[in-house]
Write a structure and sequence with these properties.
By secondary structure, the chain is α+β, with helices and mostly antiparallel strands. It has one domain (16-75). 23% of the residues lie in helices and 33% in strands. It has a two-stranded antiparallel ribbon with strand order 1-2. The chain has a two-stranded antiparallel sheet with strand order 3-4.
Length: 78
């Protein structure tokens, strides 16, 4: 992998079922291919995911009318 830092962020509004399908797609891709790919500016960047990772799950429940959040994060050292 390149020594160049690559950051990718996307935000979109989906149904709960569509969001779950995207999460399943990520999970299946990592399990089958040990990598994930992102395309930005006509350039494909592949990130290899090692056998051991750290999984972090954060949940925030807002009070009535406020934003709630569920964050799932995988991390590892290169």
């Amino acid at each position: 992998m390149s020594d160049e830092l690559f950051e990718y962020e996307t935000k979109e509004e989906l149904t709960r079922e569509e969001a779950a399908a995207k999460l399943r797609e990520f999970a299946d891709t990592i399990a089958r291919h040990n990598e994930v790919s992102f395309v930005e500016n006509n350039k494909t960047v592949r990130i290899d995911v090692p056998d051991r990772v750290r999984l972090k799950v954060e949940m925030e429940r807002g009070v009535a009318g406020e934003k709630s959040e569920l964050e799932v994060k995988l991390s590892w050292r290169e």
